[in-house]
User: Fold these one by one.
Assistant:
Number 1:
Amino acid sequence: MRTEPNFQCEALVRREEVQKEETAELINKMFGGSDELFFSSFLKNKGLSDEKADELLKLIEKMK
């Protein structure tokens, strides 16, 4: 929310909702809707340390 003298503005849509929709649109547009292709491309281009790979595995297990 942004507040200044005589001005107040508040988002109607939460940031998380926008991120979710934008991510889905990107995956649909660039990877034909395939989460697997998206993650494969992301991991191939970014690379992962063993520590980060372990963190992601834990996150995946938690989300199942």
Number 2:
Amino acid sequence: MNKKKWSVGSLIPGQETMFIPENKLAVPSFKPEKKEEPALAASAVRIQQGGLTCSVPVKPGSTLLDAALANGCDMKYKCRKGTCGQCAVDVVAGAEFLSARNTAEQKKLGSSAKRLACQSVMSQVK
């Protein structure tokens, strides 16, 4: 039986192929980059909606939704009145910069720890 190794290069006349044993191949190791979380500003609110996490600078008088959208955070929202619940977020940090829950939030979310971004108004830095 023929024990010769064939490759595409060896089938082309005039081409020679060099064989390197698999244990001698230099395979680059893949090391995923570690994504460092950006430092939270002294007056910012960090929110999470599904797999999206955003850090939103505090803008007193603005809703959390408006500030997040102005900051480039691509959140889900719909009615902006507190009835649909699409803008519900988890507040990871900076809850002290948000107003107390209003009736729309209490009615829609009940005892959940989530907040409606369209109803949460940012207050002065404390």
Number 3:
Amino acid sequence: MTRTVYYTATTLDGFIAGPQHSLDWLLTREADHEGVMGYKAFEKTVGSLVMGASTYQWIRDNGGPDAWTYDQPAWVLTHRTMEAYAGADIRFTAADSTDDLLALHADLVAAAGGLDVWVVGGGPVAAQFAGAGLLDEVVVSIAPVTLGAGSPLLPAHVELVTREVAQNGEFAVVRYDVVRPG
């Protein structure tokens, strides 16, 4: 069964990026990508992905022309005109209403081919999916650092149930199920 998963990392004080969208706090941390709840195992479960425009722009600005490493179809939520990576299946769209989000989610699930949908980045994107009752799981790696400001992990009220807790390198990693209202 396809699940929609927000898989991300955060600082202890709940920021996924620092001021000016910096990820220095993350990129200097030790983690075993092959280890428990690591990225390598997770990416094998993903059939499609969705991200916000800020996440996509960060990849473009910081990763160079070869930074796009995803083979899966990807959607970027944006109102801006953005350039796709050559040869990548990237679709730019807006989801201004719950109906738009429901239609997008149906496309994401269909493209996933039985695998999971990954909400890659942007706390606001994850919050949109949660608010529409479309988010199933949150997997978060918590780094032992605080920033005091930045982009919040999940800027919405979302009830969660803890399913798994582990350590991976410097990170405490927690897998949660999303509790849907009603």
